[in-house]
From TrEMBL, chain A:
This is U6 snRNA-associated Sm-like protein LSm1. Pfam families: LSM. PANTHER family: LSM1 (PTHR15588), U6 SNRNA-ASSOCIATED SM-LIKE PROTEIN LSM1 (PTHR15588:SF8). Keywords: Cytoplasm, mRNA processing, mRNA splicing, Phosphoprotein, Ribonucleoprotein, RNA-binding. GO terms for biological process: deadenylation-dependent decapping of nuclear-transcribed mRNA; mRNA processing; RNA splicing. Interacts with SLBP; interaction with SLBP occurs when histone mRNA is being rapidly degraded during the S phase. LSm subunits form a heteromer with a donut shape. Gene3D superfamilies: 2.30.30.100. Component of the cytoplasmic LSM1-LSM7 complex which is involved in mRNA degradation. It comes from Choiromyces venosus 120613-1. Residues 14-89 form the Sm domain. PROSITE patterns: SM. It comes from the Eukaryota. Belongs to the snRNP Sm proteins family.
TrEMBL record, chain B:
It comes from the Eukaryota. This is LSM complex subunit LSm2. GO terms for cellular component: catalytic step 2 spliceosome; Lsm1-7-Pat1 complex; P-body; precatalytic spliceosome; U4/U6 x U5 tri-snRNP complex; U6 snRNP. Keywords: mRNA processing, mRNA splicing, Nucleus, Ribonucleoprotein, RNA-binding, Spliceosome.
Amino acid sequence: MEGDPPSLPPQMFTTSAQLLDLTDKKLLVALRDGRKLIGVLRSWDQYANLVLQSTIERLYVGDAYCDIPRGVFIVRGENVLLLGEIDLDREDDIPFRRASVEEVFAAQRATDTEKKRADKVHRKKLRALGFEDEGEVLV
Amino acid sequence: MLFFSFFKTLVDHEVTVELKNDLSIRGTLKSVDQFLNIKLDDIMVLEEAKYPHLAAVRNVFIRGSVVRYVHLPSGAVDTALLEDATRREASNAAAAKGR
């Protein structure tokens, strides 16, 4: 017994059962780096490694969003935050405006610049109070 | 396997799952597996405005490794039973080692 990995009855491996009913459905996949992918789940395993087909990446800035076509994805399980089944009835009446990729990119850049500026002010104030500067925070 | 069994007793209860990225999702616990991956139904996102991508989502599968807390309804937790089960599991493990 000692040293042997504990053997479990196969019915314990229920991740498969959980993902089985999401197969071939249009899912939202949120990744650890903050990306949102929308695609059809075609395959998976017990680690939640995923294969997504007809994937798009969706970017949100303010009240706008845009879609970038990405194709087929194999996602390593450790990067998955959550899988959400998209309610096809509710999909079209989300309170967001579909915009062009260029517009969303420009808005994203503006938001990032503003955030950098605000961070700089914040860090300057902290430094004045004697806090150690941690440098620019990477997002 | 104790917490796996424990979570199985909470199926169909309303729980709030807080993720390591501070996202909190409340929903009905539908299933749980040995990695403590969690499936929630009829979800509601706290701070909905901050997470626009979940507006059209009704049920989610959350990978166990990204969960920080699961807030439970205190009425559904039998603390005494959980304590007993912990002691039993510990003594079983000790017995297995001594074999």
